[in-house]
Amino acid sequence: MADATTHEQRQTLTRWRLVLGKSAEQQGIGLGGDEEAARIEALVGFLYGDSGQGGQGGQGGPGGTGGSKSSPDRTGGLGPGHAMNVPRWVDEVGQLFPREAKEVMERELVNRRGLRELMEKPEILERIEPSKELVKTLLSHRDLLNEKTRVLARKVIDKVVQDLKSKMKISIQAAITGAIRRDKHSPRRVYRNLDLGRTVRRNLRNFDRDSQKLLVERLYYFAAERKNRPWHVIVAVDQSGSMLDSAIFSAVMASIFAELPSVRTSLFLFDTDVADLSDQVGQPVDVLLSIQLGGGTDITKALQYATQLVREPGRTIVVLITDFYEGRAEKELVHQVKEMAQAGIRMIGLGALGYDARPEYNRTTAGKCRKVGMDILSCTPEKLAEATAHIIRG
Amino acid sequence: MGAVDELLRNATRETFMTMVPRLRGAFESLHERQRDGIASHVAELYGLKESESIRALTTSVGAAQLMAELDSEVAQIMAEWLGDDAMGR
Description:
The structure holds two protein chains of two kinds. In chain A, strands 5-4-3-6-7-8 form a six-stranded mixed sheet, sandwiched between helices. The longest helix of chain A is centred in the middle third of the chain and has 34 residues. Chain A is α/β, with parallel strands linked by helices. Helices cover 45% and strands 11% of the residues of chain A. About 9% of the residues of chain A have low confidence. Chain B contains four helices and no strands. Chain B starts with a helix and ends in a 6-residue tail after the last helix. At the A-B interface, helix 1, helix 2 and helix 4 of A face helix 1, helix 2 and helix 3 of B.
């Protein structure tokens, strides 16, 4: 083969060096004095900070040890004397890399460099692209947050929740409202149908202490033809760590249900105890921040609690989100499901809720619950809405 | 190997920037010896060193499997970008 003389060949070799890491320099594959390549290496190499001591001709990656050896072509964008640290890294990655790559790298950063820095420094957290993964990280390491980062974490979660919500809302609302009142899809704004109680309740958080006034952001109306009693949807969410993804979707989904005038929504989290968050169902961020991971699982108890909430069994749907790993005897759970089914309560058991869900639930237990009357699904929020609508249509 | 080389040769700057973290991550997951083997192969390809032999990459079943995974990773990245019509014009 020819010597690496042409520009194109030099560029490809530089790229090989970036892809292979510092050890490639032992084979003479270096950055070739390319300034941008040196910047890229500084940032990518930071993730793999321990990639050995390099030979000559390359940029001593400022990552990790900062073991900089002088080299003739050291003109990296960072310049000499710049020790890389996480805040600078986040900044520079944002400037240099396309968004998709940025997300990949940030995920890797969280995985590799530990979370402490991320959770303790607001200046870092606020620069990371909000994503569902980040929300999961924040929720599962909440105890590492301090006063300042907690505020930011909330913002991140809020952003992700809003994104999910706008993605899911229309199809879910259409499915449910369509099932309840096929003639009309949105409640009419007729004053005599104003649901004053709900309007005040939902707007309470806008109470302005200074002026002692309640600022009404949104009015709630009863549907005009509201002859039927509302359906009651009870959402029960298992707090196991493995269910975190599903819990995020459940909280968002419940908040969408809660906005439907013809559905009453209850929501609670459970492990071996039950935390009823029905009054916060419209604020999925608060719901998510209430999740306490770990602890055992008592699904039977959760269902018993759900039963207590039921007013009209024939118009109640219990949506149970769990991995079906029951802490107590399976027999008791199956018995509980059977009793509820016989009372006429509809139940949907979800092994997973989400878009890329890899359901990992106890299929044996779930199967037994199915036999005594619980629908078992593992699906996207839209599918769940359809299933719910199907039950409502009867 | 050939596929990665072609990818690196033809990718636009934008494409390369997008895939570099994933590719680096994939190579970092290999054993150092395997990475060295590839580097050595690349060095030969570009005439940076004398050809030794072709044994470098076929050291063990495990290595072969890792290489296969790497290959499919690359294939996937290529497919994505070819699909997006983002490869060199």
